[in-house]
Every structure is written in structure tokens, then in C-alpha cells.
Task: structure prediction
Amino acid sequence: MTELSREERDVVATVRTFVDREVRPVVRALEHADTYPEALVERMKQLGVFGLAVPEPWGEAPVSMPCYALVTAELARGWMSLAGAMGGHTVVAKLLVAFGTREQQDRWLPRMATGEVRATMALTEPGGGSDLQAMTTVARRDGDGDGYVVDGAKTWITNSRRSQLIALLCKTDPAAQPRHRGVSVLLVEHGPGLTVSRDLPKLGYKGVESCELVFDGYRAPADAVLGGVEGRGFAQMMTGLETGRIQVAARAVGVAQAAFDDALRYAQQRESFGRPIWQHQSVGNLLADMATSLTAARQLVLHAAERYESGQRCNLEAGMAKLFASETAMRIALDAIRVHGGHGYSTEFDVERYFRDAPLMIVGEGTNEIQRDVIARQLVARGGLD
Ligand SMILES: Cc1cc2nc3c(=O)[nH]c(=O)nc-3n(C[C@H](O)[C@H](O)[C@H](O)COP(=O)(O)OP(=O)(O)OC[C@H]3O[C@@H](n4cnc5c(N)ncnc54)[C@H](O)[C@@H]3O)c2cc1C
Result:
């Protein structure tokens, strides 16, 4: 059972109140207008949400991974897009804390903690996101060896128009064998040679932008390599993705919670054949199954978060949490539509949004097919479940 400190329980409660009072009343309008939630993001800055992963001396209020997961779930319960607005940001903060040079940490982390600087990560390319080692974005040492020239393209990069810092996964040695030894993370900013070429139209995850980025002769300084040493980027990013997968799993829990809450409420209000519909066994069974799988998903997320907090690698646990929670969110979102009948298909209710948002957690941060692959490899490497 996860035990948060009193301070951490207060953090989660503060975000829950924010979601209930300030997010849920406006979310449907923002969603359908596909409006960037400027005011809500400002409030998230004030609440310290962007600094949750930044420790002293750069930040003030870092929280444990279980607390971070619960905050993420609360935000996603209000609007998955809000959790998305701080997801990549947190992964980049964790990367800087774990691997950055002191200079990189001092430069970026204080402003990331306040949300003044927001960060995202750029991994996926038009040619594919699952096989990252096949990436074609290359950073070559420029003529006088005083920096890099970057060429290539990335796609689906969320928050990239509004993020000042982009953790770019690219090849600094395209000929390296094994291929991952030629991969580095470059800390890049917007500037000449980097074009945000397109905002991609999406099924859900509205409000926040997911874009194509084109690097064409973009120049990055020599000290842009995360940690200052080339060839470590793949391993660094795989560690970062453990945070990312816990974050995505927590988002799924938040969406599933919202869908379940709406279904439970509606099933008590709506009547047919002279009684509330929850009293029809088929509907009651849906609610029972939703609550059971939601509780299991939440526990898996907390299990992964606790493992992370213990300082151990948690790729197996984060993969299982992400796989189960996202598939659960999808099923619960569909079942919430069933419970709502025709209203479930209406854009005047929220359940259709959960149904559009849920698939992202199946695909994002490594698809669930890739998660199964990670899980199977880890099971063999660890000799089974602990
Ligand atoms: C809304 C949205 C936001 C996103 N935000 C970001 C972001 O901020 N930064 C970022 O870098 N990326 C982001 N992504 C990209 C996302 O991470 C990729 O879409 C995802 O990793 C899958 O890559 P792909 O789309 O190229 O699919 P592909 O790699 O082309 O895969 C296609 C299908 O083949 C399957 N497949 C591929 N290889 C294997 C294998 N070895 N075994 C089994 N099945 C396999 C996949 O599971 C999938 O079903 C975002 C995507 C979306 C939709």
C-alpha cells in the first residue's frame, strides 16, 4: 500500500481541487474548440506542477514517483491534455537531473521548475517510432569541431511549438556498431535551421500541439550533448522512458477514473423499466468490472512508481503498468459509452472524449506491442517475476 507523506497528500489534494473547480467546468469547451489551455497551464505553473521532478538546489518541491503518478492521474481525470502538457517536460527534467552536466543542470532546471521554460522530447521520426535505433536524424561535428550541424526530421512531438527546450534523440555517429552506441541526446532550442513545419490533426489529445520538426543545417553548440559525452543517448533515453511510461500509465488511470465516475453517476440517475439502470444486472456488472480493473491498474502504476522510487530499474514494472492501464482505460471508456446509451455518443457529454483520448496511451511512449516485448525480455533477463 502506497503511503504518501502529509505534504504529498496535500499536493495531490490541491491538484484534485484544481481539477474539480477549474478544469472540469471548462474542459468540454476547450476540447471542442481545440484551444490551447493557456490559463490552465498558467495555473499549473502557479501550483508547482512543472517543478514536481526538480530537486534542490534548482527546485523547491520535488515529490516521490508515487505522488507524481497520482498528480498525473488527477490532471488526466480532468483533461488528459493537461497531463500531456507536463509529461515530456518531467522526463526531460529527470534526464537532466540524472545525466546532465552541472552546467546543463544550472542552465535549465531552475527555469523548468517554475514552468518558465517548458521541455519536450523528440524521438519519433516520420520513418518510425518503434525502431528508434534506425533513426536518420544526424548531428555531425561541424568543420572546426566547435559544435554540431543537425539534419533530419521528427514527428508527433508534443508541446514542441511552445517548449523552449527539446531533448533531441539523434545519431552523432551513424556508422557506430552496435547502432545504439552512436546515439546521443542533444539539448536544443528553437532557432535558425529548426522549423516546426506542421501541427498534426488528431483524434483526441486536443488543445496541446503535436508537431513535425524539420532540422536543416541546424547548429547546436558542442556542449549541447546531454552529459557532455557522445554515444550515451540511447541508454539515457531508455531510462527516461521508465518515467514516461509511468506517466502515461497514470494518465490512463486518470481517464479511466473519469469514465468510471461518470458511468457510476449516470447509472444511478438514469431509469429504465421503472428502476435506475445500475439495478439491471448487465449494467451493474459493467460497473463492477470497471471498478475492479481500474483498481488493479492503479495498483500496477503505484507498484512501478514504488520500484522507481527504490532506485532500481523499473522497465518491467513500468511496461506492465503502461500496458495494463492503457488497455483498461480503453475498455472502461467504451463501457462508459455503453452505460450512457445514446448520450455516450453525444459531444455534449464527456465520455466520448475519454474514448478518443484513451488510444493515445496504447500507442504513445512505445506501443503496447513494444511493451510486451520489453516485458518478455525483462522476464527472461531477471529469471521471472521477483
Ligand atoms: C498524439 C501523439 C503524441 C506523441 N507525442 C510524442 C512526443 O512528444 N515525442 C515523441 O518522440 N513521440 C511522440 N509520439 C510518437 C509515438 O511515441 C509513436 O507514434 C509510437 O512510438 C509508435 O511509433 P510509430 O507511430 O512510428 O509506429 P511504428 O513504429 O511504425 O509501428 C506501427 C505498428 O507496428 C508495430 N510494431 C513495430 N515494431 C514492432 C515490433 N518490433 N514488434 C511488434 N510490433 C511492432 C507497432 O506496435 C504498431 O502497432 C506521439 C504520438 C502521438 C499519436
Remarks:
- The chain has three domains: 6-118, 121-231, 235-382.
